[in-house]
Amino acid sequence: MENRDTFLIDLRGEALGMISDQSSSEEIFQNKILRPILRLQNELFIQVFLNYAVKQKNVFFSLTPEKKMAYIENVIQRDIKFRNSLKGMIIGLFTVDEYQEYIKNSSNLNKRMMNVLIERLKSQVQLLELD
């Protein structure tokens, strides 16, 4: 287990965002664990979202940029199967200790996880086009 944990931590790299003495445990988890995983998985998330949009009859691609932003948020909030798939891509890169920390407060951490992912996809909406 030690080798897997070390490998995952090294693969993800440094924490992203501020961590201070005043940071909550959720904020520390977000910046130390979630953000680096989301950065690592970014290209995969883009491809997964594009595949989802194609399977939904390509509606996304004909929307205005503002409506694309709303679509991203709406899909990730409301499509439970899709959201669970995205969560699995993140949780699969937790160490055992991180997972045990996660399950103590999974509801709030899931909200943070999905909000950060939504913002990440929205900030890259220009990349969400079919080639």
Automatic annotation (TrEMBL):
Protein name per the record: Glyoxalase
Species of provenance: Flavobacterium supellecticarium
